[in-house]
Structures are given as structure tokens and as C-alpha cells.
Description:
This protein is α+β, with helices and mostly antiparallel strands. Helices cover about 30% and strands about 25% of the residues. The strands form 2 sheets. The protein has an 8-stranded antiparallel β-sheet, covered by helices on one side. The longest helix has 19 residues, at about 1-20. About 35% of the residues are buried.
Amino acid sequence: MRLIIFLIKKHLKVFLNNIYYPEKLTCYPAEKQKSKPRIFLDNLIWLLRFHHANEYYYLWGFDRKNYEQYKQKYINGKLCRKVINRKKRELCPNFESYDIIIHDKFIASQYIESLGFPVPKTIALINNNSILLPKSGKELPLDCLLTEKKRIFRDCICKPVADEKGHGVFHLKIKRGSLFLNNNRFEFRQLPNLFSSSKYIIQERVIQHKNMAALNPHCVNTIRLVTCIHKGDVVPFSAVVRIGRKGNITDNWDTGGIFVGVDIEKGCLKKDGFTMEINVGKRYEIHPETAIKFHGYKIPFCNQAINLAVKLHKYFYCTHSIGWDIAITPKGPVFIECNQGWSPYTHLLVEDNFMDKFREMFSGKQVASQSHHGTVAGNEIP
């Protein structure tokens, strides 16, 4: 009951804000905006059709009078996911059996490394209050973190093996005898408590290329590339660069990261970056902290990263589409993670022809774009 009340309050707040504050919430202040009655009607129809308020109404630009020329962007992400999962079943009826290879970060890293593709070095796996060292085969008690002289976790990234969206990820560093958690001083005696509630993979921290660090130096800014199996071959589908903000150690959407589209052919950023700040969508053409202009910004080793991902996907032959998180180091691309449950929301924001591409790669049937109120022109997404 408490959850139901919370959700009602949340969606009611989003709905009312969308109606009362269009001038404040718009992401396109230079373009003509719809009238308040029309905005009210848009949001009411969306609420009645999908049973939730449209928190992306302004981020997607529904409030613009000229939305028709951009309507390929405006589809419902939940319907997209149904199509994605249906395609997975068409390729492999028991695809869930293979998803563990991707979903578990430790297993995925070991598998990718065994195939000769670049990944961050795995230092340890923490499981059941034990430290497992995959290279040597040793097993150490978790308490040795307090006494081990070599300090196994001298400079590393710690990630829960099964969590998503950057949740639970933190940076550990030992400097001049002091321990730092996400650059804040931390007591050594509390270190075992960090790993007591989950299984963690411990990896060496990746040093990114100077051109990627220029976008935001506080975290590794990664390429999110989606590849698909299409007509028997693997092809790149869509790519964004995820750029961190405000000192966060991850670049995820859920931690305030900015998503900027990538021109796959040219290997550079597109014009607009998008993010959510306290449930309010924002659009940027320049990074608000580093002042880097996105449009035309070259991504080093971009073509090499795409080619490597295409080759690697062939070894995940029972997964129709994969979202790769790829870091760019001074020596080239490194695969940070792979995701079978990638979200279409961020990609449809940066792709003007998203539905044309999605129809070709995923549906196999006529799939038209939605109108501004969430209905589908032509056939509905099945």
C-alpha cells in the first residue's frame, strides 16, 4: 500500500509539473511551444493510455509545435523492450540460459579476456567473506584486507557482479598509508563492511585517453554501443558517449551522466547531450562543467572500438542485441561491461531516424512511430 501511495504521488507530481511549468521545463526554449491546454491534453492522454505520467515529455520535446518532424523519436520504451525480447526469443528460444554470461560482470570479464579482447585487469572476486584471486588461485579471508601488507586494492574499481546502472560501484585507493573511498578518506577498519552484503568484482582502474578525460576528468567516460545480429551477421545499431558530471565516479544516466549521440561513420559526437537532473530533463550543447562543445568532437579509436565490438558479439551468438560499455585508453578501446538489457530510451533521444532503424533491426514487421500522445501511427508495436 505504501508503494502504491508513493507511485501515485510521484506520477501526480510529474503530471502537474508538466502542466504548470512548461516555460521552466522545456529543453528547447528557442523553439515555439504549444499552448497550455494542448500540453494538458498531451499529458492526460499519455496518462490514460500508459497509466503513468510522462517524465520525459519535455526531454523528448513533445512541447514543441514542430514535433511532427521529430516524431520518430517518440515511442514508448516499454513497447520497444517487448520487441527486443521477442527478437531474442526468435534467435534463441532459451536465451535466458545464456544471459548469465553477460549479466554477471565477473563471468563476462573472464569470458571476454579468454577470447583475447581487452578488459580491465581483474584483481579479485569477493564472495562469502573470502577474497578469490583468479590469477594465482589463492583464497584469502576478507579480514586480511586489514593486515595484507601489499594492499591488494591499491587503486581499483569495485562493482557488485550483478547490479546495473552503476549502483553500488565505488573507487578505492590507498595513498600515503591512507584509504580513500570515492576520493574521500575512509577508515581501514570499515573496509570489510563494504563487501559484506554482495558479491564484488575488483578491477584495476582504467586510465582513459586524454581526449576523453577532457570531456569530464572525474570518471571514465564510456561509449555505449549497441550491436545486433541482423540477417546472420553482426552490425552496429546505435552509439552514445556517456559523460559524467559533478564529481561522480560513474557516467550512468541514473547518476546524472550526459548522453551524447555518436556519428558512427565519422567517429565524432553529435550536437545535443541529454540528462535527467532531479527528475527534470536537460539538454546541453556544451558540457556545463568542462565547457567542451559536443558537436563534432572526435572520439579517439572510435572505429576500432566499433569493429572490436562487432567481432566480440559473434562469440555471444545466442544474444540478438548487446549494449557494450567501452572505455578509450591511450592504447585503444577496453570493454568495461556488456548488457543484454540495454535501454532504448537514451538512444531514441539522439537518433532522429530511430524508428526506421529499429524497424529494420528488430521488428521484422511494419512498425511506425508514435504520435505525441503515445499512440502508434499505422500498426502498433506488437
